[in-house]
């Protein structure tokens, strides 16, 4: 919704207003960490983080965390779409759910 988009912009920039076209850049950075059980637990429980001075959004590597949770390395997950489509679909659905939940919490609870 438009209200959710405005909240996301406010979360990342600190302002609920869109900047004039061509004047601002929003950067998104996925945080890559060493894979492991402890990292998995931490990443799945970590919210996206914004640095409003730099218009930077840091997103934990939820994909790697979900792969590790299912006993896969990120590299092994690359062939899943072909080799095990049902597992790949399950991981994609889990990723969508995690992204939605974490962004919703971060964006709606930041005020």
From TrEMBL:
Keywords: Ubl conjugation pathway
UniProt cross-references to Gene3D superfamilies, sorted A to Z: Hect, E3 ligase catalytic domain
PROSITE patterns in UniProt: HECT
Keyword Cell membrane: no
All copies of domain HECT, residue ranges: 1-62
One Pfam family per UniProt: HECT
Entries under SUPFAM superfamilies matching the protein: Hect, E3 ligase catalytic domain
Record InterPro entries: HECT_dom (IPR000569), Hect_E3_ubiquitin_ligase (IPR035983)
GO molecular function, one term: ubiquitin-protein transferase activity
Active site: residue positions: 53
Protein name in UniProt: HECT domain-containing protein
């Amino acid at each position: 919704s438009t209200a959710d988009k405005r909240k996301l912009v406010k979360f990342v920039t600190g302002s609920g207003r869109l900047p004039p076209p061509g004047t601002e850049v929003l950067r998104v950075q996925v945080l890559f960490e060493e894979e492991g059980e402890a990292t998995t637990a931490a990443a799945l429980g970590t919210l996206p983080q914004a640095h409003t001075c730099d218009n930077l959004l840091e997103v934990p590597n939820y994909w790697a965390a979900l792969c590790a949770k299912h006993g896969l390395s990120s590299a092994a997950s690359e062939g899943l779409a072909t080799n095990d489509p049902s597992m790949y679909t399950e991981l994609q659905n889990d990723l969508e759910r995690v992204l939605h939940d974490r962004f919703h919490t971060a964006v709606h609870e930041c005020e």
